[in-house]
Give the backbone structure.
Amino acid sequence: MHERDYDLLISGGGLAGCSLACALAGSGARIALLEKTPFRQAQAPGYDERSIALAYGSSRIFDSMGVWQDISRHAAAIQDIHISDRGHFGAARLAASDGGHEALGYVVEISSLGYILAQRVQQLDNVDLFMPAQLLDFSSDDSGVHIVLEHEAERRELDASLLVAADGAQSTIREKLNIPVREWHYGQTAVIANVTTSAAHQGIAYERFTDSGPLALLPMTDSAEATAGCRRALVWTIHDAEVDEVMAWSDQRFLEHLQERFGFRAGRFTHVGQRQSFPLRLMMARRATDQRVALIGNAAHTLHPVAGQGFNLGIRDVAVLAELIADALVAGADSGSNELLEQYARQRRGDHRNMIAFTDTVARVFSNPLPPVILARELGLLALDRLPGMKGFLTRRTMGLAGRLPRLSRGLSI
């Protein structure tokens, strides 16, 4: 067998791809990272920076990678989650202190997280960056995967043991392999914005269910551009038919409608930044592997944003795959073998199915207007708030601490 250029080639230099490279920093793996656009340069974050919710388990994975210390400076801790159903009696509260943890999770600006991971990747001796570059073609057989790319206007050919698709929800690798997907459009759109409230967030995140879908309000770090008050991240789910109207509202009218939908638990809404809208869908690849190919992150699954679990599911993909690759290299085994890929698929299958089922069920049940469903969910929220076993199970799941945990999730190096 001829010598391959790399143990793995990661196609996609976003959060998932860079996280995998960082996870394998000390493994001795020879890595090629291919990305279409140059990494973003450092700049002062503005008021409108988009953010992402990291489960506590994801923070442990990043800590095991050695990057959490830098990320934590940009993170707002979620210490409590208040769950309520607008116009109904059911409510529940999850608290980090109940499980003896410092936080249930954290909210981090995407630009800060991406910059920290990109900086780390550029410092790694075992990673070669091909950027800007485009994957043109690939083929695989028992001897390896052959990759054709364009880098700096030149055609390049590389051989690797494994090709990792970290190229997002519209993955060209997944499409070229004709991997079928299970897909469902919810008829809902998420309106994303940062808002300012008169009351401090005190580490509280809100998940408020309405007849058009969940409305989430998350704590954020302060912004130099913030107006007087407290900045928070808003994810407001509305029906598709309402999108044009809501996006056309003046800021004042938007805040008035938001106040009416959410209530005054967070004080008064005093400012809203730039609004963006994203149609919501569920997508799950029917399989996460092919010959010498592994899918991670959004290339494998896209979830409804309720409970903020999509990115965290992808980070657990990274943790499991990195562990398997590192173990294979230590044993002198093939990092793209069928056995390794079967292990990866088997270890991730349950987490994928459970989290997709959880988010999909919550999204559907809490949007259902039928009285028997409403009564059942209200009783469910009351039970959740009063039964420690049920609350503990849900808390561990939302924190990313349920089931069999890879070494990085347990604070161990790979």
Q: What stands out?
A: The chain has one domain: 6-183+281-410. Residues 6-183+281-410 form a domain with the FAD/NAD(P)-binding domain fold (CATH 3.50.50.60). The CA atoms of residues 218 and 357 lie 23 Å apart.
